[in-house]
Amino acid sequence: MENTINFGIDLGTTNSAIAKFVKGDVVVFNNPLDYGRSTLPSVVYYKKDRIVVGNKAKEYLERDPKNVVGLFKRKMGTSESFQIKSINESKTPVELSAQVLKELKTFVNTGDSLESVVITIPASFDSIQSNATKEAGKQAGFKQVVLLQEPIAASLAYANMKKSKELADGNWLVYDLGGGTFDVALVRIKDGEMKVVDHEGDNFLGGSDFDRLIVEKLIIPKVSEKYTFNDLENQMKSASGKYNAKYYSLLNQAEEAKIRLSAVSSAEIIVERMEDEEGNDVDMEITITKSEFNDLIKESIDGTIEMIKTILTRNSLKSNDIQFNLMVGGSTFIPYVRQRVEEVLQIPSNCEIDPTTAVAVGAAYYAATKQKEVAKEKGEKKQSTISIKASYNKASKESDELFAARIKGNTEGLFYKITRQDGGFDSGLKPLTERINEDLPLVENAYNFFTLTVYDDENNVIETDIEPIGINSGFGISGQPLPEDICLEVDDYDNPGHTRLALIFERNSVLPTKRTLTFPINKPILKGNSTDRLWINVYEGPQTSLPEANKLIGVIEISGKQVSRDIAKGSDLEITIMISESRDVTVAGYLNMSDQEFKNVFNPKERDTNISLLKGQVTDLSSKLDEEIELATEKEDYETASALSKVKKEMETVSEEADKLSDDDVTDKRYQLEDKKRKIAQEIDSATKNKRLQKATDLYYETKSECEELIEASGNDHERKTYNDIVSQEGAFMATKSPLKIQEKSDELQAIIGQIRWRTPEFLKGIFAYLVENQAKMNDQSQAKSLIDAGKFAVESQNWDRLREINFGLFDLMPKGSKDEISTKIGFGL
């Protein structure tokens, strides 16, 4: 199967693996340097003259921690880098991941040239983290990288392992708890088709966090109790701390103890080779019992259970609607994890697949359905007068599968035949036409190879460019779902000076997807002026949340340097946004006023979490929460006040943990706290939804009344029809009780108002007069005077289009506070 990718890689936080699809089965490659193991520890060690990856690198964690890096997957997509002492350089998570991928290539002993690969990512990875993973693949030498969500990979591994047994229609869960990340996905099989319906996850929850808990909650307190230290935990977790090297050593021992506790009732950790503040040698053997460890991780496991409950509630399901919980990821080897999840949810745990390699196996099954895009070398191309473009499902549970092809070239006098490799099917010789269709019978639970051969009228074989046809009689997946809503940040005209989110793609939309939308730009862009920029933030997260509660994944940007003429405020910008199956975001723009197309105007943004800034944001959010509780109490809205008070407890915990962070903290704590802060902001937003709903409803009816009056006075037929269409939908969008959906309808009415107002001379003259009165507030008095003189001439000559442009220009000279005031008074910016 030279035309499909076939290779799948599980690029894990703590361990990675590589597998290949071979004629219906998957082979997991063994680690050539670690007999009996098929995984590679995701750890990189830098010496002056060489790079070591895997177990050997891990051995240096205690001896040379400043030159060893692990757990870097959790920082993919961030601006963080790791300083390597031996080479006096810093390495990014992308560069470190590339080293792991390069090492995995050495596992392959089949002589294959690895140019294309499927690499798995957590389902909860955002677009920036996904892009970073693709970049790591490119740096490792892969020319084509396709990303696959880990729960989908695990589902494919299980379903294809069971292909000799018909899987019943129904639902199951994939519970994927690895070394550094957690995903849970709801999988549904219906009519032989497998689909991921929903998911939840935490990119900073896994076995490495359990190791950290052992060190921070059990080891450090016991050592501090016996010896004299000044804040030992901070001295260990700070990059410049006296005991930072020892921290990594203890984490390594904690991991070994955790693994032993899966089989025995207690494990020992030895703390030595360090002195306390008084010069005393530390020498302790600390015993950790299984019950202590279980108590330690209970809160984390219960957190994963809450995520499962969220999925069930969101999809109107109960525990008895779920067939089983498929356990995946090395941390599911912990007996307490399986026991606790099954005990609370009353859903059977399914441990039939190897949790350490299941994701790599599933990735290989998926790779067998993906076409290679790597171009052949020119010398390898077949010389052919016939080109065949084929279309067919590469995985199917049906008894036969439709093969369709489009033929380019002269087909006159030509024939074709399709045969199955085992001799069990022969289509017979048929005339070759521009389009052909054939039902190909499949051997159940096997990989089916077919060959399409073209003949001339003398039965001579005609060379074509079609590769062998391969169809796996097993489960495929009906597309990867989008993990979060994708939104644009737009002006909130109901709250001048504020913004809100406009939904572009909804969570769980099947990838790839594409959408085109048009909206007026909110500022002029002067040709050649690099400081004049159209800047639109793109966020990932719930559309119902405030922008600051979501993740900024990039910006759409067009500057004055790119435009061929001056662009007036209010001109239409058409944006086309595309998201590939691997979560690549591509944005193209079209400006009607200059008749210009812009390609690749999306600039992704790395996650940059500054600890000082994070502390300030936590403080601000805490203050906002207090204000909302006070406001709800004053209005005797005790239900909202009660909901917010529960959030207050979470807020206090985050505040306490943020205060403890040192500026050079080496752990992932800042990212965990940032995610918690974001979730709290979303909870506050959700709890205060009723207040926003009432406000949105009142605004809608006010806007509707104003719009109706203006249409009666000055509206045209098109505006009247648009108004009637909106009003006819009133019952439906009011029933959603969604402030945003109601706000969207207010915006549509407001757009009609704006269209009518901005072509009305009296309105334009009124705005001009108001702006002239406020000339003293304007930033550039010389430019203001010039525009005002031009405006007076436009009024005299009744050039209303010119007056409209001048009003926009004067408005942009006002300071921000005055702009908001004017917007409120005269509805500017519509």
Show the helix and strand layout.
Blueprint: E1 7-10, E2 15-22, E3 25-28, E4 40-41, E5 43-46, E6 51-53, H1 55-63, E7 68-70, E8 82-84, E9 89-91, H2 93-105, E10 116-121, H3 127-139, E11 144-149, H4 150-161, E12 170-177, E13 182-190, E14 193-202, H5 207-226, H6 232-237, H7 244-260, E15 266-271, E16 284-289, H8 290-314, E17 322-328, H9 335-345, E18 349-350, H10 358-367, E19 387-391, E20 400-408, E21 415-420, E22 430-431, E23 435-441, E24 447-455, E25 461-462, E26 469-472, E27 480-481, E28 486-491, E29 499-505, E30 510-511, E31 513-520, E32 533-540, E33 551-559, E34 572-579, E35 585-591, E36 596-598, E37 602-604, H11 611-634, H12 638-660, H13 669-687, H14 689-714, H15 717-728, H16 730-735, H17 739-757, H18 761-773, H19 781-796, H20 800-812, H21 816-826
Parallel strand pairs: 1-10, 10-11, 12-17, 17-18
Antiparallel strand pairs: 1-2, 2-3, 2-4, 5-6, 5-7, 8-9, 12-13, 13-14, 15-16, 19-20, 20-23, 21-22, 21-24, 24-25, 24-26, 27-30, 28-29, 28-32, 31-34, 32-33, 33-37, 34-35, 35-36
Helix pairs in contact: 2-3, 4-10, 5-7, 8-9, 11-12, 11-13, 12-13, 14-15, 14-17, 15-17, 18-20, 19-20
Rg computed from alpha carbons, rounded to a whole number of angstroms = 31 Å
Give unreliable regions as ranges: 375-382, 824-830
Amount of helix: 25-40%
Multimeric state: single chain
N-end to C-end Cα span: 57 Å
What's the total number of strands?
37
Structural class: alpha+beta
Coiled coil: 644-690
Protein name: Chaperone protein DnaK
Family: Belongs to the heat shock protein 70 family.
GO molecular function, one term: ATP binding
